[in-house]
Design a protein that fits this description.
six-stranded mixed sheet, ATPase_BadF (chains A, B), ATPase (chains A, B), Nucleotidyltransferase, domain 5, homodimer, 2 domains, ATPase_NBD (chains A, B), Euk-type_GlcNAc_Kinase (chains A, B), alpha/beta
């Protein structure tokens, strides 16, 4: 917990890379006497690129990430009155890091050393930055839900992960799952099959601008099918008060989300469970049944608000690394800290 | 029911176009005194092309279909000692006819008149040829299930259709649905979520040759994802005797299939329900719960064997057209008979 340069604490660089682009934050390293880094720590400034980092044959393209990161970081340093050599640590969180992170793991350590002289680096799955953003370095569990759904928990020694397997193998209870169930109910109404909802059918016809018989032609040719399905979630949520089928879909989603949370909570102790991600923005239609399900499946859970977002989480990781205070479990795929980083 | 050329009854041409290629049958038109055409009627001969008909911006490409069909038909006629001018009617069944059949509906009547001088033509969705193959022209219901699942029924005046909406919007209980549920159970076992099956996980690791954590990387980059999911169905069926999770998946599939059958059965009378398609080849693991579900949801149903396959169904349609005896409901999308065809 000592810092070799307390008189010039320097900066950390935090990166959040995902399908909607690249977000970068520059934050000051707290002096050694300050409190341990927490989520939602003050940031000097952030920069955003709307261009998602390319994915190539080796996975997420390290060169393309550096091309965007270096000028963004230099601009932030310039505004803050800092210099590249003042960067003490970098944390990069990326969607797909576990499965598509080989190129990043191979090339980022050298590229960042060359660009900024920085050797302390953490490469984190987006679920890990979501965790650190929500709970800091405390034990507990985080459910991150948007189009997909993943739960991640730790008691401090190792990560437990549940779901996050994508829209055809899991992501049960996430946005694409809920939207798909809503459209299934709309088509069941058309067919006269059990489980149909006339209200969801009417909302689908309005939302997708045409009869539901046209849905296959509108959905299947797209490359962003999970996002198209998830776009229907707010309609399902709006119907839930009046429509038992829509309410049942959200009840079933709550069941699946609670199952994932229960699988990752550290055993035996009371466990903080933070819910984070855009899906929970739909509000009580999902949150009320989810809290009920959590109380049934995981009575020792205590639902808490997320302190910050995944970019905040990357700041937590980088700051901890700069202060020799990284307490979250290292893991080759979920939270990779290359040798020589600390 | 009269035939203008009883002394030279001629031939009908039947076509079944799908994802695995083009199948063509040439069948003799029965004399007017013969029994009405039935499914499984004798065929002179069949020809097969393994090249699926291309789908272009206008849907299934009529020109590409004709390029393959004309030489295949001429070869069959040559073997049978017939001539192009002896063809009395043509029926074309195609997967996607309802949504992708515009080019066929626009260009096939003229192209077939030019190639063979034939004016009697039926363009049928593959579900209609499956129906005619299974039940001939009798009222009833047919469930066609392979990778997908669709039910079609009629009392003789109009078609009722249920499901067949594809792997993201429906096809509930079909092959992709069952395979996906099996892999979900495998991943639930890995995660420690409720609903997991260690046996399905072990089978998935053997079948897909590696840990289930690699499944997303093996599935999502493919363009034939529904077929990949459905390829796991035999493993789910094999596990059902020993594994309650696998048995529960097939029970749930049976429920969905029975829901679709119940939605399309002609009302109020006893109803023949024929099960057709590759999915039912997995046997009792699915058939036993399905017959139970049918007896609960649709007690007036009588499960029968399909008399023939979709190519047989196209022969039924073409023969009925040749004899002025088409009794199945005409429908712009499901069973299109262009004006001037009869």
């Amino acid at each position: 917990m000592t810092n070799s340069s307390t008189h010039q604490p320097g900066w950390v660089l935090a990166v959040d890379s995902g399908g909607s682009g690249l977000r970068v934050a520059l934050a000051p390293v707290p002096s050694a006497g300050d409190a341990a880094p927490a989520a939602g720590a003050d940031r000097a400034d952030t920069a955003v690129s709307r261009q998602p980092v390319r994915t190539g044959p080796g996975g997420i393209d390290a060169g393309h990430l550096m091309e965007q990161l270096v000028p963004m970081a230099n601009a932030l340093l310039g505004e803050a009155g800092g210099d590249g050599k003042d960067i003490r640590a970098v944390a990069v969180g990326a969607a797909g890091m576990a499965t598509l992170g080989d190129d990043l793991r191979e090339h980022l350590p050298g590229a960042l050393a060359e660009a900024f002289g920085v050797r302390r680096l953490a490469l984190a799955a987006d679920a890990v930055t979501a965790y650190a953003g929500a709970l800091g370095q405390r034990p507990g569990a985080v459910v991150a839900a948007g189009t997909g759904m993943i739960a991640l928990g730790t008691e401090g020694r190792k990560w437990r992960r549940a779901d996050g397997w994508g829209h055809l193998l899991g992501d049960c209870g996430g946005g694409a799952w809920i939207g798909r169930a809503g459209l299934d109910a709309a088509l069941r109404d058309l067919d006269g099959r059990r489980g149909g909802s006339a209200l969801l059918r009417a909302r689908a016809e309005e939302f997708f601008d045409g009869p539901v018989t046209e849905l296959p032609g509108k959905l299947y040719p797209r490359t962003d099918r999970p996002a198209v399905l998830a776009s229907f979630v707010p309609e399902v949520a709006r119907c839930a008060a009046d429509d038992p089928v829509a309410a049942g879909i959200l009840q079933a989603a709550a069941l699946h989300i609670a199952e994932a949370a229960a699988a990752v909570c550290p055993p035996e102790t009371e466990c903080e469970v933070a819910l984070t991600g855009g899906l929970f923005g739909i509000g009580d239609a999902l949150l009320v049944p989810l809290k009920e399900e959590l109380s049934v499946q995981l009575p020792r859970a205590r639902a808490v608000s997320a302190e910050g977002n995944p970019l905040d989480g990357a700041v937590v990781l980088a700051t901890a690394l700069a202060l020799d205070a990284l307490a979250l479990p290292r893991d080759g795929r979920l939270l990779h800290v290359p040798e020589g980083s600390d």
